[in-house]
Amino acid sequence: MASIFTKIINREIPSDIVFENDKVIAFKDINPQAPVHILVVPKKEIATINDIKEEDKELIGEVYLAIGKIAAQLGIAEEGYRVIANCNEYGGQEVFHIHFHLLGGEKLGPLV
Ligand code: AMP
Predict the structure, then answer these.
(1) Which residue has the least CA distance to atom 12 on ligand 1?
(2) Which of 16, 46, 99, 100 has a 20 to 30 A CA-CA distance from 89?
């Protein structure tokens, strides 16, 4: 079954998209934890960080390139931001399609 993020990629459910290219999409988190909270998602459906393969190395690089572009686009690059990726139960992962939380727009608190 397609992940909720694949449904966003396919425009089957709405989202507020801030960046897209052929490999990566980014949209506003529906439940923001900071003034800027974007989810950066590879279009390839990989369930967890544990499932990243050798062949995905370049794709993960594309994700980080996108993160830098989005941060600049949203005006948070200079002041700074945080990138978080949760994995499985202890990491608090809820959506099993890997994604990178881009958080910023204010000085963030401790990591946990
Ligand atoms: P995680 O706990 O790392 O799996 O994060 C999943 C994130 O997806 C949460 O921060 C949710 O608020 C967010 N989320 C779930 N459904 C949607 C949606 N339809 N549009 C935007 N963000 C979503």
Answers:
(1) 31
(2) 16
